[in-house]
């Protein structure tokens, strides 16, 4: 069973057809820069192009889409790293109008976490597992005994008087030209703060930064297991495709 998964990020939009039984990509991953400004209209237009490019056009097909903000029942409630115009928008309806297809829209980190729990580092893990995505922002997802607790927003936690995601995200590393050594100190402070509050069984580190895990993972020290996302930065679009195929 193949489904189209789309991961909308603050910097890039990624898409692929995914085999939802195995979690493997059934096509190359396509990547587009996020439109600037990233208004609902501009993103909907791009999503329309993506759907056409993949030839995913039979009505009745469903698309899963990860959005970088709080999403409840298809409606966007926050937008920290994309246009504020998204707030209050029924994203599922907007994309349906743009493409003629049904959309399942949810928080990007929640969807990345779903994929890691099913096919990656979180497989068969009980208790509280925290999935983190380090990219333009910091996305967070909680899984209790494998079940998602949606819309956990701990990227905005304050650490040392700063908002964690503006200080410790992958974007902060790149924009401030931090070495992995310096950046990992920030990540470590953040992870330890999270640990002190939630005492998870496992932390999974994903997002764009997971590509470089070998360069900084060994510097991180938390009192619980910490694993890189096995699906790396593809977790978001794989999870999106899963969401499209799971909802009935
Ligand atoms: C948003 C989250 C999102 C994360 C990663 C944060 O700024 O508030 O909802 O998951 O960025 O995109």
State the gist of this model.
This protein has helices at residues 40-53, 91-99, 108-119, 164-168, 170-175, 180-198, 213-216, 235-246, and strands at 2-8, 12-19, 24-25, 30-33, 62-67, 71-72, 75-76, 102-107, 128-134, 138-144, 147-149, 158-159, 162-163, 202-206, 226-228. By secondary structure, it is an alpha/beta fold. It binds beta-D-glucopyranose.
Number of helices: 8
Order of helices and strands: EEEEHEEEHEHEEEEEHHHEHEH
Gross geometry: globular
- List bound small molecules: beta-D-glucopyranose
Low-confidence stretches: none
Proportion of residues in helical segments: 25-40%
Q: For the residues shown, what is the average pLDDT?
A: 96
Structural class: alpha/beta
- Give the termini distance in whole angstroms: 14 Å
The percentage of residues in β strands lies in 25-35%
Say how many strands there are: 15
Largest sheet: 6 strands, mixed
Question: What's the Cα radius of gyration?
Answer: 17 Å
Produce the secondary structure layout.
Elements (H helix, E strand, L loop, with lengths): L1 E7 L3 E8 L4 E2 L4 E4 L6 H14 L8 E6 L3 E2 L2 E2 L14 H9 L2 E6 H12 L8 E7 L3 E7 L2 E3 L8 E2 L2 E2 H5 L1 H6 L4 H19 L3 E5 L6 H4 L9 E3 L6 H12 L2
Parallel strand pairs: 1-5, 5-8, 9-14, 14-15
Antiparallel strand pairs: 1-2, 2-3, 2-4, 6-7, 9-10, 10-11, 12-13
Helix pairs in contact: 1-2, 3-8
The chain binds beta-D-glucopyranose (BGC).
Describe the 3D structure.
This protein is α/β, with parallel strands linked by helices. It is built from 8 helices and 15 strands. The strands form 4 sheets. Strands 1, 2, 3, 4, 5 and 8 form a 6-stranded mixed beta sheet that branches. Strands 11-10-9-14-15 form a 5-stranded mixed beta sheet. Strands 6-7 form a two-stranded antiparallel sheet. Helix 1 (about 40-55) packs across helix 2 (about 90-100). It is globular, with a radius of gyration of 17 Å.
């Amino acid at each position: 069973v193949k489904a189209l998964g789309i991961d909308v990020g603050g910097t890039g939009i990624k898409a692929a057809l995914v085999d939802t039984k195995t979690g493997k990509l059934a096509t190359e991953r396509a990547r587009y820069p996020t439109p600037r400004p990233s208004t609902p209209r501009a993103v909907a237009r791009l999503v329309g192009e993506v759907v056409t490019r993949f030839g995913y056009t039979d009505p009745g097909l469903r698309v899963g889409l990860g959005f970088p903000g709080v999403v409840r029942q298809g409606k966007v409630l926050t937008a920290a790293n994309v246009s504020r115009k998204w707030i209050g928008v029924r994203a599922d309806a907007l994309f349906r109008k743009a493409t003629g297809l049904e959309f399942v829209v949810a928080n990007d980190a929640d969807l990345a976490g779903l994929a890691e729990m099913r096919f990656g580092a979180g497989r068969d893990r009980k208790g509280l597992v925290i999935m983190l995505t380090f990219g333009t922002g910091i996305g967070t997802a909680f899984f209790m005994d494998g079940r998602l607790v949606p819309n956990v927003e701990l990227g905005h936690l304050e650490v040392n008087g700063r908002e964690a995601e503006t200080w410790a995200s992958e974007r902060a590393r790149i924009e401030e030209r931090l070495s992995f050594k310096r950046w990992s100190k920030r990540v470590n402070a953040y992870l330890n703060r999270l640990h002190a509050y939630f005492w998870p069984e496992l932390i999974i580190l994903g997002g764009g930064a997971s590509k470089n895990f070998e360069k900084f993972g060994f510097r991180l020290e938390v009192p619980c297991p910490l694993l890189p996302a096995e699906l790396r930065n593809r977790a978001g679009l794989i999870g999106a495709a899963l969401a499209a195929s799971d909802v009935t």
